[in-house]
Amino acid sequence: MKPIAIFRHFRSEGPGYFATFLDRHSIPWQLVRIDQQESVPTGIEDFLGLVFMGGPMSVNDPLPWVAQSCALVRAAVAADIPVLGHCLGGQLIAKALGGIITKAPIKEIGWGSVRVLDNADAQSWFGGLDGFETFHWHGETFSIPPGAVRLLESTHCANQAYALGKVFGMQCHVEMTADMIRQWCHDGAAEIAASDSPAVQSPEIMQAGMVPKVAALNAVADRIYTRWIEGLART
User: Fold this and answer.
1) Beta strands in 68-178 (DSSP E)
2) Residue 235 lies in a domain
3) Beta bridge partners of 102
4) For the whole model, what pTM was predicted?
5) Helix (H, G, I), strand (E, B), or coil: what is residue 158?
């Protein structure tokens, strides 16, 4: 079986719970370490799907791998290969498919609720779920790419997820583990301290009672990831 290509853009923003999910389902995966200057593959032939993780940079930055990754996304969509994006990854996919990435009205860092929209596509991905508490860490937001359907929204960010065929892009982070939250709070301490956003939580608040919160988020991630792997051409 071909592997899933998982693109890591920053050392502490790896696949997290998504890797656990793939291992549980015996689906092979290969990590492409963009943060260690590994090259973006030039073709999609060797992969079952493409998954893009988060990162502190902007997809509007003049980074060579951004354009290369966007080209890879478009090739995957044209070949009907599933594509999945988390936060920066969701922005990258949106950009590749004609969306626009802009500064968010309010920076979101920490736990916050999202609402599942009342449309057929949202129900396909989330079943009867009305909403859930997820993890956020973003200062930018994407527009919904042409032809895609908006699936999730939050109080501070209207576009939290979209779907287009076998493409699923998120602004929020459903891949979190407790260890990742601890590491991000450490790495992002200066950003948190410098922010006056009402949607930015302190490290203490983010880590308080996080074990059951992470478990509940993993259950939601299971729904999304299970729906996403249905599109894989496993032979």
Assistant:
1) 83-86, 101-116, 131-142, 149-153, 161-164, 167-170
2) no
3) 141
4) 0.97
5) coil
Under DSSP, is residue 15 helix (H, G, I), strand (E, B) or coil? coil
Is 68 a domain residue?
yes
Q: Exposed (0-12), middle (13-18) or buried (19+): which is 134, by Cβ within 10 Å?
A: buried
* Amino acid occupying residue 73: V
The rounded distance, in Å, linking the Cα atoms of 29 and 47 is: 9
Kindly state the tokens that stand for 220.
């939601």
Token readout for 3 is: 């592997």
Token duo for residue 109 = 């860092």
pLDDT exceeds 80 at position 63: yes
Partners of 137 in beta bridges: 109
Residue 15 and residue 19: Cα distance in Å, rounded? 5
Q: Percent of the chain beyond pLDDT 70?
A: 99
Q: Which has the closest alpha carbon to 139: 63, 88, 205? A: 88
Strands 161-164 and 167-170: antiparallel
Give the domain range for residue 72. 4-229
